[in-house]
Specification:
Layout: H1 13-24, H2 31-42, H3 59-84, H4 98-113, H5 119-137, H6 140-145, H7 151-162, H8 169-188, H9 197-219, H10 230-238
């Protein structure tokens, strides 16, 4: 739009930023490289994986399973607080942390073994580029050109006018925010079996609201409308449906 003169800007921080962004071309990896990385790390998309590369085929199943395990853990805590909650330390309830630790450890291991090579460099490069683009869209001349109040308004207007529409952004934004925080927690936690349950609860507590928020947003997306609920999903992840007593 800027190159073809279809944006009503000439000078200003936004115009200069667009010029510099096009001039320097900070993205060294192309679309195909990113699609292959998504396929390797998350098994998303249809790009063919390179021969011999490890594809994390269970990512979505494990990620949803970790979310529902954390959500179930704090629901169990809430029930325990109602039944036996008290002011004394020995009266405080705690839930079973085994399922959360098991799924979290599997998720971290699978992500680690499927992201060798250039994925870290690609992630850093794409993250810096995305940060620059979002700052650019927040400049006053670009927002004025689209009669927008925020950078998110600019994205929505451009998508609707020139890119054929946009999916509901609120659910995707919440899933992205909460999902990023949960993946960061998984990456930073070693899930030691011998950890004290109270200590693990205090470390995990900030993630409880993110897990519930992610599940609530996921239910509203086309992909998540078939979500059966926390308990059935958790049973499928840990294989309880196929177990025989």
């Amino acid at each position: 739009l800027f190159r073809e003169g279809r944006m009503r800007i000439q000078r200003g921080p936004g115009a200069r930023g667009l010029y510099l962004l096009e001039k320097w071309k900070p993205l060294r990896y192309g679309l195909r490289d990113r699609m292959v990385a998504y396929r390797r790390a998350f098994n998303y998309g249809t790009a063919p994986a390179p021969a011999g590369a490890i594809v994390n085929q269970q990512f979505h199943r494990q990620f949803v399973g970790f979310m529902v395990a954390v959500g179930q853990y704090f629901r169990d805590l809430l029930i325990g607080e109602v039944i036996r909650g008290g002011q004394l330390i020995e009266q405080r309830p705690f839930g079973s942390i085994g399922t959360v630790q098991r799924i979290g450890l599997d998720l971290r291991y699978a992500l680690d073994r499927s992201t060798y090579g250039n994925i870290l460099a690609l992630t850093v490069e794409t993250g810096h580029y995305l940060h620059s683009v979002l700052e650019l869209l927040d400049t006053p001349d670009i927002k004025k050109a689209f009669d927008a109040n925020t950078k998110w308004d600019v994205i929505e207007i451009v998508s609707n006018r020139y890119l054929g529409g946009i999916s509901e952004p609120s659910q995707r934004a919440k899933m992205a925010e909460s999902g990023r925080r949960m993946l960061q927690f998984v990456a930073d936690n070693d899930f030691k079996t011998a950890i004290d349950p109270i200590l693990f609860q205090s470390e995990l507590r900030p993630m409880g609201s993110h897990a519930e928020a992610w599940i609530a947003a996921y239910r509203m997306t086309p992909e998540g409308r078939g979500f059966a609920g926390v308990t059935p999903a958790l049973k499928r992840v840990i294989g309880a449906n196929s177990a025989r007593l």
